[in-house]
Design goal:
A hairpin with a 4-residue loop joins strand 1 and strand 2. 32% of the residues lie in helices and 42% in strands. It contains four helices and nine strands; from the N terminus they run H-H-E-E-H-E-E-E-E-E-H-E-E. The chain has one domain: Nuclear Transport Factor 2, Chain: A, CATH 3.10.450. The chain is globular, with a radius of gyration of 14 Å. The strands form two sheets. Strands 1, 2, 3, 4, 5, 6 and 7 form a seven-stranded mixed β-sheet that branches. A two-stranded antiparallel ribbon has the order 8-9. It has 146 residues and is of the alpha+beta class. This is SnoaL-like domain-containing protein.
């Protein structure tokens, strides 16, 4: 995976979420996509309808918190089987120059799909995933369920 591919994918996600553009967001994923919260129950978004419902919840919580930027800082790229890779990154969620929450680490498992690297799996903190689903809040810079 070229190093620029993760930056492009990250920017696509940020632009789609902040612009509430599901068509752009959809281009970042290879369905079905598995969501695996650390210390939580994994689930799968099997089709466009499930991905769009998840996307709308995420957009709503970003709007509620007046998020203006999401920056993902690549930390490690680990080759997996065949042409799959796991990218570990630190996520920064910002309202202008202020953090909405303390930075946290996540992973994407990426694989080639339709000629581009796309997300096949997301691993993140239980608090972040619950927050994106509108099930948790932030207190003192931390997701409450972490």
């Amino acid at each position: 995976m070229p190093r620029a591919a993760f930056a492009t994918l990250s920017n696509t996600l940020t632009d789609a979420l902040l612009g509430r553009d599901f068509a752009l967001y959809r281009t970042a994923f290879c369905l079905p996509v598995r969501i695996e919260p650390r210390k939580g129950q994994a689930y799968t978004l099997a089709d466009d309808a499930a991905l769009e419902a998840d996307f709308k919840l995420y957009c709503d919580i970003l709007k509620t918190h007046a998020v203006t930027d999401i920056f993902r800082e690549e930390m490690q790229v680990l080759p997996l089987e065949d042409d799959w890779v796991e990218v570990t990154f630190c996520t920064h969620i910002l309202r202008h120059a202020q953090r909405v929450v303390e930075p946290f680490n996540s992973q994407f498992v990426l694989r080639p799909c339709d000629g581009a690297w796309r997300i096949a799996e997301i691993r993140s903190t239980l608090g972040h995933i619950n927050w994106t689903l509108g099930r948790a809040e932030i207190d003192k810079g931390r997701f409450i369920t972490d």
